[in-house]
Specification:
The protein is mainly beta and 464 residues long. The protein is built from four helices and 29 strands. The protein folds into four domains: 1-123, no CATH class; 133-164, no CATH class; 174-206, no CATH class; 213-462, Hemopexin-like domain (Hemopexin, 4 Propeller), CATH 2.110.10.10. The radius of gyration is 52 Å and the shape is rod-shaped.
Length: 464
């Protein structure tokens, strides 16, 4: 008998209102409760964990306890239920513990209306059941709370979902001079050669524009200035500047123009602004048909005309690397037609035979050359009497040739005024030559390929 009651009571998973009629729990109520006072009518509060009512009808009596986990346990003495030790056969066997025995038809027990009360079973559900995190991750538990562990490239969205991560590189072009990467959730530009990443990391700036002067395309020491400035040929990308290493350059003094030569073309620049403006270019054969037949363009310089309308004289030097001599072209420049007319050629020019001393530059190392007719810059300070046999005044007109580490100055006035051939002064280290010694941030001559002096401003161009 007590085992039958125990089986019935074990079915109650929590306190619930029910009616005990005789020894049968009647389904007269199923409301959750804490005490009998919480139950309507004659119902009592029973605990499916093993607490049962000891009276014989709803209302009144005391609660007792049965160890629900031990169906063979004795019923406590104070329940008022006699423990006969025999199995109760007056009740149908409820299928509460897996029994499949058919009920005893000889003694059906109480009225058919009396049924076993079966409250909800306490089952734990998985909060992740049915959650697929948008098929872009897996549902996991953290302290019983579900969350989405999202796949690479996805992040938790609203509810239990995974959405694509925001790409921090959206809209970041790095000025087309680098590639944007996701650096821990932040955009960062990996910039190409000759470009630096900006302080914010989301753009690329050319090293020349970032103050690294040796990465510039050309450099200018303006007249009267002690500060070199570096520029790129065309930062706007709208013009057609030189392509390739510059080999020679000269200016047209009275017309704010300059011509810059590479290995296969020459270009014209306007000098009237702060930066050069490029307006035209031609093949080398349009300067001279034989120029392209030489291995290397050595240098070029111009001799300014006495008047703005006069023709300027252009000297172009080229050589074959197997020869110790140079080819010299002397041409006149016509400002009205912007054309060059051949005046003289010397296919076997040699410094020593023409100027008679050992201070001439190695023509394979000449980077820059120019003529200054009045030494207005004051850069030449040598005493011509040291090289002329006769006493001579200071040099006014001179020809400068810069190599990778020296300045070679060819006097064009003092010795000639004394009736002698022009001579070279002793070479001067560039570090002691005024444009480099007395100025700030000069470019390294290892990067320079050509240059000229125009109205007191020195221009140098990248050669490698």
């Amino acid at each position: 008998m007590q085992k039958t009651i125990q089986r019935l009571l074990i079915q109650l998973s929590s306190f619930a209102c029910a009616m005990l009629v005789g020894l049968v729990v009647s389904a007269c109520g199923s409301s959750e409760c804490e005490t009998n006072a919480d139950c309507p009518g004659d119902q009592i509060c029973l605990d499916g964990g093993g607490v049962f009512f000891s009276g014989s009808s709803c209302g009144g009596g005391e609660l007792g306890a049965i160890n629900a986990s031990d169906p063979d346990a004795d019923i406590p003495d104070d329940t008022g239920i006699e423990d006969t030790g025999a199995e109760d056969t007056s009740l149908p066997d409820a299928d509460v513990d897996g029994d499949t025995d058919a009920p005893d038809t000889d003694d059906a027990g109480p009225d058919d209306a009396d049924v076993v009360f079966t409250p909800d079973t306490d089952t734990s559900s998985d909060p992740c059941d049915g959650e697929d995190c948008s098929n872009n991750g897996s549902c996991e538990l953290d302290g019983g709370e579900p969350y989405c562990d999202c796949n690479t490239g996805y992040e938790p969205g609203s509810g239990l979902s995974c959405v694509e991560e925001d790409d921090p590189c959206d809209g970041i072009t790095c000025s087309n001079n680098g590639n944007c990467i996701d650096d821990g959730g932040s955009a960062h530009c990996n910039c190409f050669s000759n470009y630096n990443t900006t302080a914010g990391g989301t753009d690329c700036v050319h090293k020349c524009d970032d103050g690294e002067i040796n990465y510039c395309d050309y450099w200018v020491l303006s007249s009267g200035s002690s500060q070199w400035s570096g520029y790129r040929y065309d930062s706007s990308g709208l013009q057609n500047p030189p392509s390739g290493d510059v080999k020679a350059a000269f200016d047209i003094e009275h017309h704010d123009r300059a011509y810059i030569f590479t290995d296969n073309r020459f270009y014209r620049a306007d000098l009237s602004g702060t930066e050069l403006q490029w307006d035209n270019d031609w093949t080398l054969s349009q300067f001279d048909g034989n120029l392209s037949s030489y291995d290397e363009i050595v240098a070029a310089y111009s001799v300014a005309a006495d008047t703005a309308g006069g023709a300027e004289e252009i000297i172009m030097m080229a050589r074959n690397t197997s020869s110790s001599t140079m080819m010299i072209w002397v041409k006149d420049y016509s400002p009205s037609s912007s054309s060059f007319t051949s005046k003289h050629e010397d296919p076997n020019f040699d410094w020593t035979s023409d100027h008679g001393n050992q201070h001439a530059p190695d023509h394979s190392d000449i980077r820059v050359s120019w003529v200054e007719v009045d030494n207005a810059t004051g850069w030449v300070t040598g005493d011509p009497s040291e090289m002329c046999d006769e006493a001579a005044s200071s040099s006014e007109e001179y020809n400068a040739f810069l190599t990778s580490n020296q300045a070679h100055i060819l006097d064009q006035s003092a010795c000639q005024d004394a009736g002698e051939e022009s001579h070279f002064y002793d070479p001067i280290l560039l570090s002691s030559f005024s444009p480099f010694q007395s100025s700030t941030n000069p470019p390294s001559m290892t990067h320079v390929g050509a240059g000229f002096l125009n109205q007191g401003s020195l221009y140098l161009f990248r050669g490698n």
